[in-house]
Design a protein that fits this description.
Elements: E1 6-11, H1 15-23, H2 26-34, H3 40-59, E2 66-71, E3 84-90, H4 92-99, E4 106-111, H5 129-135, E5 143-153, E6 158-161, E7 164-168, E8 175-181, E9 188-193, E10 196-199, H6 207-215, E11 228-233, E12 248-252, E13 257-261, E14 266-270, E15 278-280, E16 285-298
Parallel strand pairs: 1-2, 1-3, 3-4, 4-16
Antiparallel strand pairs: 5-6, 5-16, 7-10, 7-14, 8-9, 8-13, 10-11, 11-12, 13-16, 14-15
Helix pairs in contact: 1-2
């Protein structure tokens, strides 16, 4: 007998919860914010809206289905199943955070704070959950297949992201490496920089776009479903042994950007989740390109 579908409600700790955990009580947290010119009621109201939204989506799960909840900080330890429907309740970035752990499960994004969130990935209201959840598994339900980016190291470590992958040094140290495009006639450049950013069309609405805009790049940013990535080297430094000629480009189809580490340690992380990073050391090679898997975002 096949298992009933399971709804996985993904959420994150609110700012209010973090403040109370840090300061011990509501009153102490309120005093802390007041001393800095802020009112805790604004933060508490956003917390209440988030909790109401989570409760509303949870109560909309069909009675014959299973359900569970997972907090953002626990995603790397949670096992998603093939029959899951993933309901992200929160901000756009939370969809990106969960994307790397999925393998084709349908995802629904519910906006807990309309008007404050852009709503690029959390496209639905919690009140629509009762209709959307059963429809997510129905044949013919429309879903956007969003392109993802992956980094694969020579020791088989692999990292996937929805928005972007960053390769660089920990903190504000200089990253040293050799950069080149696979199959580009062996053209490789030694570089010292603040790191390399490789992003998708979904990421083109965030960090990737800010780099593209600040640089005044002539590159065309990809669409979210396009099999094309854009990459930028951040603050490449010219010296007698490091160059600045390979600082931006595109990756289409199976094209791969290759980086050989020439530092004691570099890290690779995706979508801002530094706690779930791949660590690389001297001489290791990592390739970055379009991921074969896609995120199925419903609606």
């Amino acid at each position: 007998m096949s298992l009933a579908p399971r709804v996985v409600l993904v959420h994150r700790t609110t700012e209010y919860e973090e403040l109370v955990a840090r300061h011990g009580t509501h009153g102490q947290a309120a005093y802390f914010l007041r001393s800095r010119g802020r009112d805790i009621e604004e933060v508490a109201e956003r917390h209440r809206r988030t909790r109401r939204a989570l409760a509303e989506v949870s109560s909309s799960v069909p009675l014959t289905w299973r359900q569970t909840q997972v907090e953002r900080a626990d995603l790397d330890r949670f096992l998603f199943a093939p029959e899951d429907v993933v309901a992200v309740v929160g901000q756009d970035g939370l969809v990106a955070n969960v994307a790397k752990y999925l393998s084709g499960q349908p995802v629904l994004g519910f906006d807990t704070d309309p008007g404050r969130n852009p709503g690029v990935l959390v496209r639905h209201r919690p009140s629509d959950a009762a209709v959307l959840l059963p429809a997510a598994l129905a044949a013919g339900t429309g879903a956007d297949e969003l392109t993802m980016v992956e980094a694969v190291a020579d020791d088989t470590q692999r990292l996937v992201a929805l928005n972007e992958i960053y390769l660089g040094a920990v903190g504000h140290q200089t990253a040293r490496y050799r950069l080149g495009l696979e199959g580009d006639g062996g053209v490789v450049e030694a570089q010292a920089s603040s790191g390399v950013l490789v992003g998708t069309g979904t990421g083109a609405s965030g960090w990737l776009r800010s780099v593209w805009q600040e640089r005044g790049s002539a590159l065309t940013l990809p669409h979210p479903s396009e099999d094309r990535l854009v990459w930028f080297v951040r603050e490449a430094w010219p010296s007698p042994v490091t160059g600045t000629s390979l600082v931006a480009g595109e990756l289409e189809g199976s094209a791969t950007l290759q980086l050989t580490v020439e530092s004691e340690q570099l890290i690779v992380f995706g979508d801002g989740m530094e706690g779930d990073a791949v660590e690389l050391t001297w001489g290791q090679v990592v390739g970055v390109g379009v991921c074969g898997e896609r995120l199925r975002l419903v609606g």
